Structure to design on (449 residues):
């Protein structure tokens, strides 16, 4: 495949209007862009999946968010404490997660209804969670004589989940990252971004070769000046050359509109990445996106953070993502023992109770033409519309204001017998007789065929 064949139709936000533009960012316009059909085929598993697990795991889980009386650190520990790199490196010597069980993590994610796992192969502190030949600043320098990424990749494949990696572009440890920190006492000489890009590529080659095929490469930390659009395009092309069907998020390039996460203009990358927010109405058909979010207030493990979101809030977020045509990537920060925090485990279980019964209204669905009803949300698949009722009507009548077509049969998704609910069509509206109290207090799903 030629270099420019990698560049595709890009979709981007212009002011508040979303426009679909056929724009190639390739400097050489002689080769055809990936066709929409080919792109949709490559993105299909991602669009069907809707729900994934993010895992932020690195040596920052050793201090567990606490240092010199302050308790609010996470994976940004090195940057926020300004600890000398030589001192931070000592956490590697204490990282020995002997309770880590890849099969158990994957089973917990699967039971929650998650279809893919994205784990940090390297966060901004540069530490590799895999034995890299490119550096000693990786799992090799810990007492833990195992390869957690290998174990997880195998467990994912066995369980039918896609295995994906988060790999930070910004690197506070590497001497060649262009904006070197003053507290990096291990680095000398002048930073050289060409050398840095070669280092990243060599690590990515190891990752794709030894843990692949990967579902997604999830880049981050692209916003600092040394990272340029040209470097982003080059890295995108390189990763696709290693594995043509790999999916790459938009943070490989420079187009991202801050935490809103969608691209401001033409840029490389396959999908948008809202962070810590769920867009209210999605971005229209054909736009791929995924909201990533913490379960409490930190990505990396913080032993003092008890600001856990309720399961209800997490389920609603998943449903709002699906109803806007996007995915929900929910984070866990495991401990230095190798365990998911209890509160995370509990929430995964509870989400699983809901997805087990109601998964048909999430996986493989898209946004429905009903839009955003007063009582909740809606998704659709084929000839079926799923009504997600967050606020159950007190008078036993659920009104669907904008019914696109006449309904043949209406029932509760949780009802295996599909007992029909009484209904009445009235001037484009559909009025349903529903039980007096909500069968599911979080989100009762009604199936309209
Ligand atoms: O890995 C997790 C966090 O450590 C990382 N992304 C998630 C997935 C993260 N890095 N930074 N942040 C979260 C918040 C940083 C925001 C800012 Fe910016 C960076 C503000 C200004 C520069 C993002 C990029 C918003 C504008 C540009």
């Amino acid at each position: 495949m030629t270099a420019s064949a990698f560049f595709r139709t890009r979709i981007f936000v212009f002011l508040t209007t979303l426009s679909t533009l056929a724009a190639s960012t390739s400097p050489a316009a002689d080769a055809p862009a990936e066709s929409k059909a080919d792109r949709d085929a490559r993105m299909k598993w991602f669009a069907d999946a809707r729900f994934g697990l993010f895992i932020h795991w690195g040596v920052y889980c050793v201090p567990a968010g606490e240092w010199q009386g302050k308790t609010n650190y996470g994976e940004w520990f090195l940057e926020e404490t300004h600890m000398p790199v030589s001192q931070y490196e000592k956490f590697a010597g204490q990282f020995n997660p002997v309770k880590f069980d890849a099969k158990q993590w994957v089973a917990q994610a699967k039971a929650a209804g998650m279809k893919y796992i994205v784990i940090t192969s390297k966060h901004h502190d540069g530490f590799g969670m895999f034995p890299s030949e490119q550096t000693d600043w990786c799992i090799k320098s810990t007492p833990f004589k195992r390869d957690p990424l290998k174990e997880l990749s195998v467990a994912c494949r066995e369980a039918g989940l896609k295995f994906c990696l988060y790999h930070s572009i910004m690197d506070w440890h590497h001497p060649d990252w262009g904006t070197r920190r003053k507290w990096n006492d291990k680095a000398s000489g002048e930073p050289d971004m060409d050398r840095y890009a070669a280092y990243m590529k060599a690590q990515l080659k190891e990752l794709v070769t030894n843990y692949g095929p990967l579902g997604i490469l999830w880049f981050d930390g692209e916003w600092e000046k040394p990272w340029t659009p040209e470097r982003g395009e080059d890295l995108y092309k390189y990763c696709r050359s290693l594995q043509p069907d790999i999916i790459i998020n938009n943070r490989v390039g420079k187009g991202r509109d801050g935490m809103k996460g969608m691209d401001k203009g033409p840029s490389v990358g396959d999908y948008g990445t809202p962070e810590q927010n769920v867009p209210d109405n999605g971005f229209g058909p054909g736009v791929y996106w995924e909201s990533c979010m913490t379960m409490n207030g930190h990505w990396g493990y913080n032993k003092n953070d008890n600001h856990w979101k309720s399961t209800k809030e997490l389920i609603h977020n998943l449903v709002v993502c699906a109803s806007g045509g996007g995915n929900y990537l929910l984070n866990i920060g495991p401990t230095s023992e190798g365990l998911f925090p209890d509160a995370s485990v509990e929430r995964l279980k509870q989400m699983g109770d809901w997805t087990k019964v109601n998964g048909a209204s999430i996986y493989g669905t898209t946004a429905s033409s009903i839009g955003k009803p007063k009582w909740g949300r809606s998704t659709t698949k084929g000839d079926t519309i799923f009504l997600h009722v967050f606020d159950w009507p007190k008078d036993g009548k659920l009104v669907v204001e904008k019914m696109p077509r006449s309904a043949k049969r209406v029932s509760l998704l949780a009802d295996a017998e599909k007992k029909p609910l009484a209904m009445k069509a009235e001037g484009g509206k559909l009025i349903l007789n529903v039980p007096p109290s909500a069968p599911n207090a979080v989100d009762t799903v009604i199936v309209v065929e």
About this structure: The pocket of H79 is lined by residues 75-76, 220, 223, 258-259, 275, 292, 299 (CB under 6 Å). Residues 219 and 378 are 31 Å apart (CA to CA). The domain at 376-448 is CATH 2.60.40.1180 (Immunoglobulin-like).
